[in-house]
Amino acid sequence: MAPQKAVNQNRVNGTLLLLVILLGILVWLSDRVPPESANPSTPLTRLLPDQVSVIGIRNRSGPTFSMQRDGRGWRMTKPYAIAASDTRIRRLLEIAASPVRSQFKPEQTDLSEFGLAPPAALLYLDQLEIRIGGTDPINNYRYIGIGDNLYLIKDLFPHLLLAPAESYVSPYILPQNKELDLIETPEWQLVRVPESARVWRLTPAVAGISIDRLNEKVDEWKYAQALKVVKAPAGTPDYRIQIRVTGSDAALLFGILRQKQGTLLMREDLGLAYDLPRIGALLTAPALPAGEP
How many domains does the chain divide into? Predict the structure, then answer.
């Protein structure tokens, strides 16, 4: 065979080999990726987020927790009886309308391949159970099981679905839309003057301090938000403070626990701790502005 013919034959053989390899890859991919049988605009569920009234989450980050909508927003009912984070729940509910990229009906023996034996998490929206699986290694979409079907959606919700209950507690340390009657620490006390809306008495008194300055301190407490809420660590608080909300018979008790990592504000009755920014300023008694005599 002439040298030129041999070269041409080698090229043909190389091309055929490459085609065979590519065909094998395509066959392998077709086994791994389910057919695109869903319209990309098809939502995962028919639920409207504004109509969902009960949410439950079970995952490996802690005990099962549930939240319920009431006239004022969302409240956690289990394991903590406390206001829930409306913002975080609003983001979570977006999963109900998440566009489906693909759907198919797997064999029961295939569930472990999709991270669903067992699921990474279970999400309950009212009566609907949503099983959270693993991610597809090719496109990183998340496998979701509902009934007998599997769906693939963009993986936008793992930080919400796999989080512990504490992350869904409202970051506000006090009930919102409520007035305060008392803030008492071992060092100072603010008491609302009876029959007044925004007049407070500070003990020990500070000569010349304005009503506005006292109200600023009250508002700092009313609207204080934690960077994060966690389980209360073991340990006895360094001291305790109490805050009374208008219309409440019992004061809320908070423990102050100083650690190397920072100071925590604890609800010992619930077993929760709040990591607050500038907690030192919050705990400091109202004072005259710098430079005032």
Answer: 2
What is the Cα 280 distance to its own chain's centre? 26
pLDDT in tens, 178-197: 999 999 999 999 999 987 77
Question: Where do we find the tokens 């599997």?
Answer: 150
Tokens at residue 174, please?
């006090």
198 and 156 assigned to the same domain: no
What backbone torsions phi and psi does residue 146 show, to the nearest 5 degrees? -135, 120
Contacts of residue 200, defined as CB under 8 A and 6 or more positions apart, other chains included, come to 190, 191, 192, 193, 211, 214, 215, 218
What pTM was computed for the model? 0.82
Per-residue confidence (pLDDT) for residue 72, from 0 to 100: 83
Token pair, residue 241, equals: 């403070």
C-beta separation of 34 from 100 below 8 A:
no
Strands (E), the chain: 54-59, 65-70, 73-78, 82-83, 102-104, 121-125, 128-135, 142-146, 149-153, 180-184, 189-192, 200-203, 228-231, 239-245, 252-259, 262-267, 272-275
Host domain of residue 73: 49-168
For the cut 60, the answer to whether the pLDDT of residue 7 exceeds it is no
